[in-house]
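Hi V.,

You were right to ask for the full record rather than a summary. Here it is.
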Amino acid sequence: MLKQFADWLVFSIIGLIPGSRAGEALDFFIYDTIKIFLLLTTIIFVVAIIRTSFPPEKTKRLLSHKREYIGNVLAALLGIVTPFCSCSAVPLFIGFVESGVPLGVTFSFLISSPMVNEVALIMLWGLFGWKIALIYIGTGLLVAVVAGIVIGKLKMEQYVQDYVWEMQVGNAEIVQLSFREKLDYARGYTLELLRKIWPYVVVGVGLGAFIHGYVPADFLARWAGRDNPLAVPIAVALGVPLYSNAAGVIPIVHALTEKGMAIGTVLAFMMAVTALSLPEAIILKNVLKNRLLVVFFGIVALAIVCVGYLFNAIL
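Predicted structure:
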């Protein structure tokens, strides 16, 4: 029904010609924008209600009292219900460190939160189907868990800035909310989150629509197709300087896939954009010393490249 509405609006009301570059680009833009916002509104509201049972103080205590490997898994899973961009996840990352959560566990969260969350799951499901969505979520969690364990094993606590260890975090009382209060919170949270991410969605869909309508079909396939062995690391290298969240980058990924780029390559590009970015590095520079910052980016980038090659081999 949404596709029929978009076709009717673009080709009957606006009067663009079916098959034309402008017509196909605008049709893509209208259809994907409406579909994505409907999905986001519904799922964010539901997840927000679930999140009310896991306030930050309770979460910190849970992660702090688990064995390290279990903590890594829990921290990565926590990222699914905390749809932050890479920069927005840093304050909670600092809070975990201050609370005594093991360093490797905090990094599992820092990787998972921007890369693996309900926004990514629902948008990928809507655009690519449930198999791609679940494979992406599974491998994203694996990257977060493994990278966090590796960083934890390296024992690099001395490369966290000293002031982070000196800060104290109080134990706030956990308040139980009524169901009505949970609904009010979920409504407010949904509106607030949509207010923050709607520009990313519109810009992302707009870029995706431009690629869909105007970029020649063989342009990207030539340098990022299955026959290019360096396609995945090139895509990751291109993704790191960019900055977006899942809502903004997934429409671009959709358009790149339609143009013939291998699915593993475009999803590696997506992981790099969401989990690694220059703004994130600038913020983390105030929290981490250079050696730990380089190790973090290097381990995650290597893991993403491996995931990209794996996707290309099996899909």
